[in-house]
Amino acid sequence: TAEARLAAALRRARGAIVAEREAARGLPEGFSIAYDVVPRDVAEDSRKVGQILGSMMPMMLILMSLLGSFLPAIDLTAGEKERGTMQTLLCAPVRSIEIISGKFLAVWIISLLTALGNVVSLSLTVSRMLPDVMVVDPWIFALTFALLVPVTLLFSALFLALAVFAKDFKDGQNALMPAYLPLSLLAGITALPVVELNPWTAYAPVLNIAVLIKALFVGEAPVDLLFTALLSSALYACLALLFAARVFERENVLLGGQESARAVLGLRRRAGGAPSAGFSLAAFAGVQVLFFYGSLLIARASVAVQLAVSQVGFFLAPTLALVAGFGYSPRATLGLRRPSVRGLAGALLLGASAWAAIGGTVLRWFPPPEPFVRELGELVLLGGQPYLVVLLLVAVTPAVCEELLFRGLVYAGLRRAGPAVAIGVSALLFGLAHGSVYRLLPTLSLGLVLGYARHRTGSVLPGALLHALNNGLAVSLLYFKPPSVQGIVEGELLPWSVTAAAAVVSLAGLLLLRSASPGAPEEGEHRGDGEPRGP
């Protein structure tokens, strides 16, 4: 290039000038050069080969997995329409869920076996090409195959759902190419040295697993981003499965008819009631993606501004917009009912004691590292903001915004699967949303208590009260640091006596919740298992 030629010319000119000056002063040639700078690669052999394999393996494995599900998905959908066997299958005494399950498992197993075969083949090829150097641990290849599992799930479900719209095999190939090419591109760009696992790529479908495989071979896979990439990839796979199941419920599509995207996706405006589980989980995934990328955009703002914008702009606003935009009943979906006095009393007792009972038990067995505790304490205080501001942003705002999302929208969609599923899944998502391995068990435990309060009272208000008290007490202890609890504030474990007393108070709160009666159901709803349900 012109830049390289210019740099070379300047180096030659500089050398000539230096040589002239040395000769003028009677110095030997090269005297002014104290030392020579010679580039040398000091990386270990395993890292060198890992860098090369990390650039090649993700693209090759993901492309092969794509091809493994591409043709089987077309043959089991559009191919059956062309052969006339789809109509025969629909006349058989089987349910639509059994049809989609059988076809999906067939496509997924083929894709999974394709991925397994390629991983084994490439591992043997590497060991054959480099027999004298232990460059890659065999466990790296095993982990690589494990990471391909959610990717093959995503490909199989997505291709199956798209191919069913085609009328014949050729039409199916044309239908899948617009999806195949972007997915191939996402896998291919991992070969670029600048593409690595970071907070932006950890949420990108397909790309997150590709860069995670690359990081494994290079030996630089951060635990927190690994957790984020796996979670987001699993969510995308679940959404693809829900989409495929919804498509196969449309008999008109299976028989070759045409339907609008709004009809297939179930995006028609409702007249009251609560959302489905698929809608709630999709809404949660969308809110998390919005929260993640939105947080990066406001990363330079103060901690207080970040917290306020995140809670109101990325949690509360989308939740209210989805409920209002799709016409769901705010009362049934968000649990906006007047709770009983016993429900409020139980929430009050739990809010005052659950933090000590959970913290004294969970943190005793799974203590977080001291730097994490110290950093979290500084973060909670919002950089020295006044007490009322900290209390509002850390206690009150999350209690409202997070409860309306998790014990409102998410819980309402899962409620038809039963209270145990609704409480457990909403609590798990609540724990995962906090994005920290060290906070997962405490927040999961708190989420179970909050979900139980929602179930027994039929209202989100007791949970919001419990949540606000839990956070508010923690904020107050950190802010004022009373001498009697100085050790606890600085990260020491709660004494067993305090934990036991808190557990007794929490048990009393749970008993009050158990005896609480849910609020009156709105018109069109009925009571069941202590929980008003939508139509």
From TrEMBL:
Location of this chain's protein in the cell: Membrane
Keywords: Membrane, Transmembrane, Transmembrane helix
Pfam family, one: Rce1-like
Entry keyword Manganese: no
Entry membrane topology: Multi-pass membrane protein
One of the GO biological process terms: CAAX-box protein maturation
Residue intervals of the CAAX prenyl protease 2/Lysostaphin resistance protein A-like domain: 387-472
ABC-2 type transporter transmembrane domain span: 42-245
GO cellular component: membrane
Residue stretches spanning the membrane: 56-74, 105-127, 139-165, 177-195, 202-219, 225-245, 277-299, 305-329, 341-366, 386-406, 418-441, 461-481, 493-513
Protein name: Sodium ABC transporter permease
Organism expressing this protein natively: Sorangium cellulosum
